[in-house]
């Protein structure tokens, strides 16, 4: 796998959103979450393992995700995380906040593009 | 699930959770490694890469754990475990620290519980905040109302009390009845104004239930009293306005406790007919258990409607007269009110004061009275009347200051012990700092230790306080059975104890903790033991501990001076020349009139009893008087023949053999005898002071005195004896000129009588035969106020006895604590200087010189402490000046004694380590380095 030329640093607080979004597709374990984020962002986003697990446990403490031990596709015991109803609501809220934010950033940073449309 | 409970569950399943986290991270590593292997990396390298990518595994685990939300709690748990271990290994230190803190916190808690009970507690009624008490105040310069004969003041007569002094003027809570009606009409301010009258006549009632007589305390209350206080009955009904009018059926309300004692329960009491002072009443109801009236100093057993004082007073020669309801210059009712919702104290004052001002001006008879009109003061009434606060607030503040000082001493002591230990733990601290412990974290851990110490001290202190409260209640009650003040360990007091523990824990822990962590790591690690190089730091530690010792010495001196002053006051009081012999005298009181005895039979009844008491085996003499000498205080107009009646001379009505029984010397003439009886020539005995004041050098024997009743001569008495001066009415006031008269020779007719029996051996042994004789004579007459003459006197100096006892205890405690602190500091310094002392001895220093070297340090500390505290003691002792008798606050002997005691104790505390220093073997000391 080729290394992308530049990597994007995760913005503060966006990791939670990414985890919640990833879990929307179904329950999975920590390693798969990290890989999924990396792949779907075309390797632009690299999740630091050092912050992934504290984030997962923090979300669990908040009640947005729940964990249980299940077997991975390779047949090994793994801690699977899934979205809770509260997590779904949180994701929707965070998502719309993020959308508004990125639209606003886009408007400020690239006014020409917007006008051009 | 609520996030809080989720975290709580995690806390419980902590070990499980740790294992799960390890497994989760391991799975991640395996997964990562497998993936890399699949991409073609060698197995071993794939593993390393996975580890590299994850970073510091321990840190990841740590950070994850942090999100579980109980890091702080867990660290607290670690700190506590560590603190317990440290305490367990230093048992002596722990015991000393906890004990001194327990004493300090316990003493504070006990005294505070009394402050809570006396100064802060509200009446147990609905919405106490809206209650007010009415007072009046008149500026200094007006003669007291009681001697209103000169008519300088609108109060021409009174029944109640006034208080104050020459500087602050006079204050009182009694008003004429018309003034009460004026307040009652003011419904803009009051939703209800109500009154009470704790007349002397009902303070001790004879109350007979089904023929069984007993003593009860009572007070008169207005018809609105219970409605105004919003008190609901425990049984029956309470007094209503309709009960409080002339001619209404006589009803009474009894307290819950009294209903239990005398009727066997509240339900049984309601509806019962009773005899009160031989008048028929019906008990209509019972007050609730927690209700004690409005005066915390007295809890009446019986409440009577105000207007029943007319029939009650009519039965008594000095009883209440119904004209007084109309008299605008006779002050007697105590007024309280409940403010309308929304009316503030200030608004009430603003409305009522001018109204009262206007009214009272119309009662003035002359210009002098008009110039000194009393002004109305509306005070908050949530706590009821302030009689207890007036009596005890000043002593309580003094005691509070003392126990505060003790607690400060204890804190200083523990801080000192902690400092010494911090020095011993410097290597430990340096080690911990060097392996990366945060200073804040270590300070937190040390503080946990000290707060834990304080908490243990606090818990033990509360137990100590319970004991102290019981002891204090005993001291304050001083034998009085109806003592109403009950301090208790409520959440209020416990809260204060807990806050004190926490505060002291932080207070004495913080400085040593900061000191302990301010370590230069390298030298501390290199030094073999405490001491050694790093002298600058060591010096600072020592000086902090020296400051603590100096302040302990200073505080101890303050307490020693206080103890000295109070003990000398007590010994002055106890060595007062009484003029009679207080030992082996039994006193008790009978009131035959309240049981229905009438003139002239009552005098025979009393006389017959005296004869029977004298016949008890072991009773050497028996006599009677209207009051005990120390508690007496009766004045009636008595004059020399031809002179007009004066303001009133003090007198005492007594029975035969009174002077013989009390062992008051007869200087001339004779004692009263059986032959002085109704119908025989009226006689009198005067005391020496009366003889000197009225007859000078002339012989008073055979002279005559005239006793006046309402401006008519009532008795013409021949003086048949002159007695030595015996204390009358007070232990400390000068003996006043006094006339003794037989109780049975006409006006004033006898009411209650106090019998005095001079006994062989313990007077209290004779109580049972006395009760038996009285029961046989008339079971309707209860025997009350049984006490020895010595106890009767002690009761008047109860406060001084309490103070002397408590302060001596406090001072001994303080001295002990300070000595322990001093000993600890000196011993530590000696240990630190072992090497130096060894060298000195090796080069030939003599033992005496070494002892002196150590003692000199002690003396310097003591001298500095004294230099600070002597001026402080001189200033502070002025605050207790009003508690002293027979000496001045700056009494030099007391001061000298306190200083000498302190120096002696300090030298003793210093000598032990000094002697140890002089016994040091130089060889061992030198090797020790």
Give your account of this protein's structure:
The complex is a heterodimer of chains A (117) and B (929). With 117 residues, chain A is an alpha+beta fold. Chain A has one domain (14-109): Arc Repressor Mutant, subunit A, CATH 1.10.10. Helices cover 56% and strands 14% of the residues of chain A. Chain A contains five helices and three strands. Chain A has a three-stranded antiparallel beta sheet. In chain A, β2 (65-71) and β3 (77-83) form a beta hairpin. Mean pLDDT of chain A is 81; it is low at 1-5. By secondary structure, chain B is of the alpha+beta class. Chain B is built from 30 helices and 29 strands. In chain B, a hairpin with a 2-residue loop joins β7 and β8. The two termini of chain B are 64 Å apart. Mean pLDDT of chain B is 86; it is low at 145-149 and 528-539. Classes of the chains: A alpha+beta (117), B alpha+beta (929).
Order of helices and strands of chain A: HEHHEEHH
**Shape, per Cα inertia axes of chain A:** globular
Low-confidence segments of chain B, given as residue ranges, are 145-149, 528-539
Major sheet attributes of chain B: 15 strands, mixed
Instruction: Indicate the low-confidence ranges of chain A by residue numbers.
Output: 1-5
Count the E strands of chain A: 3
CATH homologous superfamily of chain A, by name?
Answer: Winged helix-like DNA-binding domain superfamily/Winged helix DNA-binding domain
In short:
With 117 residues, chain A is of the alpha+beta class. Chain A has helices spanning 14-23, 30-40, 49-62, 85-109, 111-116, and strands spanning 28-29, 65-71, 77-83. Chain A has a three-stranded antiparallel beta sheet.
Task: Considering the chains and any ligands shown, give keywords for the structure.
heterodimer, A: alpha+beta, Arc Repressor Mutant, subunit A, three-stranded antiparallel sheet, 5 helices, B: 929 residues, 15-stranded mixed sheet, eight-stranded mixed sheet
């Amino acid at each position: 796998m080729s290394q992308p030329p530049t990597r994007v640093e995760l913005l503060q607080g966006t990791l939670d959103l990414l985890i919640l979004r990833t879990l929307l597709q179904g329950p999975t374990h920590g390693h798969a979450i990290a890989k999924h984020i990396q792949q779907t962002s075309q390797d632009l986003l690299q999740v630091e393992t050092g912050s992934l697990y504290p984030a997962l446990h923090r979300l669990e403490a908040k009640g947005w995700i729940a964990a249980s031990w299940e077997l991975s596709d390779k047949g090994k015991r793994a801690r699977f995380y899934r979205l809770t109803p509260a997590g779904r609501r949180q994701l929707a809220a965070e998502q719309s906040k993020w959308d508004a934010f990125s639209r606003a950033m886009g408007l400020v940073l690239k006014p020409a593009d917007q006008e051009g449309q | 699930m609520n996030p809080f409970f989720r975290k709580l569950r995690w806390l419980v399943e902590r070990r499980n959770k740790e294992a799960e986290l390890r497994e989760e991270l391991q799975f991640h590593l395996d997964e990562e490694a497998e993936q890399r292997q699949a991409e073609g990396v060698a197995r071993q390298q794939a593993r390393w890469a996975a580890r590299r990518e994850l970073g510091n595994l321990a840190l990841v685990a740590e950070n994850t754990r942090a999100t579980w939300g109980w890091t702080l709690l867990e660290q607290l748990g670690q700190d506590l475990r560590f603190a317990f271990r440290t305490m367990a290994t230093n048992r002596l230190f722990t015991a000393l620290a906890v004990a001194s803190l327990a004493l300090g916190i316990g003493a504070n808690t006990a005294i505070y519980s009394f402050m809570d009970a006396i100064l802060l507690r509200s009446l147990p009624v609905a919405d106490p905040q809206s209650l007010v008490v009415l007072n009046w105040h008149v500026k200094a310069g007006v003669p007291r109302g009681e001697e209103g004969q000169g008519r300088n003041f609108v109060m021409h007569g009174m029944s109640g009390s006034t208080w104050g002094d020459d500087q602050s003027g006079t204050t009182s809570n009694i008003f004429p009845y018309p003034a009460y009606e004026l307040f009652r009409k003011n419904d803009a301010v009051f939703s209800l104004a109500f009154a009470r009258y704790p007349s002397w006549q009902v303070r001790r009632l004879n109350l007979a239930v089904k023929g069984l007589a007993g003593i009860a305390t009572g007070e008169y209350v207005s018809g609105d009293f219970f409605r105004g206080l919003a008190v609901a009955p425990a049984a029956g009904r309470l007094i209503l306005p309709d009960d409080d009018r002339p001619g209404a059926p006589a009803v009474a309300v009894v307290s819950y406790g009294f209903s239990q004692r005398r009727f066997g329960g509240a339900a049984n009491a309601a509806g019962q007919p009773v005899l009160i002072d031989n008048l028929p009443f019906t008990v209509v109801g019972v007050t609730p258990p927690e209700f004690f009236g409005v005066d915390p100093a007295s809890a009446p057993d019986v409440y009577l409607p105000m207007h029943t004082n007319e029939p009650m007073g009519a039965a008594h020669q000095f009883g209440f007269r119904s004209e007084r309801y109309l008299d605008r210059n006779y002050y007697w009712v105590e007024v309280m009110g409940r403010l309308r919702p929304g009316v503030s104290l200030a608004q009430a004052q603003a409305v009522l004061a001018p109204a009262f001002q206007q009214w009272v001006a119309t009662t003035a008879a002359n210009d002098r009275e008009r110039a000194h009109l009393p002004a109305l003061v509306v005070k908050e009434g949530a706590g009821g009347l302030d009689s207890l606060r007036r009596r005890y607030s000043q002593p309580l503040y003094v005691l509070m200051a003392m126990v505060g000082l003790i607690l400060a001493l204890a804190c200083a002591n523990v801080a000192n012990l902690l400092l010494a230990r911090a020095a011993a733990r410097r290597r430990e601290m340096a080690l911990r700092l060097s392996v990366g412990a945060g200073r804040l974290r270590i300070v937190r851990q040390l503080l946990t230790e000290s707060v834990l110490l304080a908490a243990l001290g606090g818990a033990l202190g509360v137990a100590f306080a319970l004991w102290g409260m019981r002891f204090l209640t005993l001291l304050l009650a001083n034998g009085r059975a109806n003592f109403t003040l009950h301090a208790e360990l409520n959440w209020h007091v416990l809260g204060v104890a807990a806050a004190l523990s926490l505060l002291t824990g932080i207070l004495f822990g913080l400085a040593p903790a900061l000191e302990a962590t301010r370590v230069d790591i390298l030298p501390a690690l290199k030094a073999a033991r405490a001491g050694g190089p790093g002298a600058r730091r060591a010096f600072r530690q020592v000086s902090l501990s020296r400051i603590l010792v100096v302040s302990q010495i200073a505080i101890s001196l303050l307490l020693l001076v206080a103890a000295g002053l109070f003990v000398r006051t007590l010994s002055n009081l106890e060595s007062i020349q009484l003029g009679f012999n207080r030992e082996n005298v039994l006193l008790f009181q009978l009131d035959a009139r309240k049981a229905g005895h009438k003139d002239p039979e009552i005098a025979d009844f009393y006389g017959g009893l005296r004869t029977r008491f004298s016949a008890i085996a072991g009773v050497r003499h028996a006599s009677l008087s209207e009051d005990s000498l120390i508690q007496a205080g009766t004045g009636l107009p008595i004059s020399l023949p031809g002179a007009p009646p004066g303001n009133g001379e003090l007198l005492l009505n007594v029975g035969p053999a009174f002077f013989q029984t009390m062992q008051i010397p007869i200087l001339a003439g004779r004692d009263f005898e059986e032959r002085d009886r109704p119908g025989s020539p009226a006689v009198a005995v005067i005391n020496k002071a009366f003889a000197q004041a009225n007859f000078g050098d002339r012989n008073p024997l055979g002279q005559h005195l005239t006793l006046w009743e309402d401006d008519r001569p009532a008795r013409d008495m021949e003086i048949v004896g002159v007695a030595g001066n015996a204390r009358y009415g007070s232990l400390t006031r000068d003996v006043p000129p006094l006339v003794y008269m037989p109780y049975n020779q006409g006006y004033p007719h006898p009411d209650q009588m106090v019998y005095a029996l001079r006994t062989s051996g313990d007077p209290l042994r004779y109580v049972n035969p006395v009760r038996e004789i009285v029961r046989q004579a008339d079971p309707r007459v209860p025997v009350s106020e049984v006490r020895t003459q010595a106890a009767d006197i002690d009761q008047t100096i109860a406060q001084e006895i309490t103070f002397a006892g408590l302060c001596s205890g406090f001072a001994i405690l303080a001295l002990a604590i300070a000595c322990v602190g001093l000993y600890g500091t000196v011993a530590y310094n000696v240990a630190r200087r072992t090497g130096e002392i060894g060298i000195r001895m090796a080069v030939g220093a003599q033992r005496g010189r070494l002892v002196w070297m150590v003692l000199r340090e002690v003396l310097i500390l003591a001298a500095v402490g004294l230099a600070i505290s002597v001026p402080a003691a001189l200033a502070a002792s002025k605050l207790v000046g009003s508690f002293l008798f027979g000496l001045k606050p700056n009494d030099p002997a007391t001061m000298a004694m306190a200083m000498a005691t302190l120096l002696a104790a300090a030298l003793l505390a210093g000598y032990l380590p000094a002697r140890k220093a002089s016994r040091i073997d130089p060889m061992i000391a030198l090797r020790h380095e």
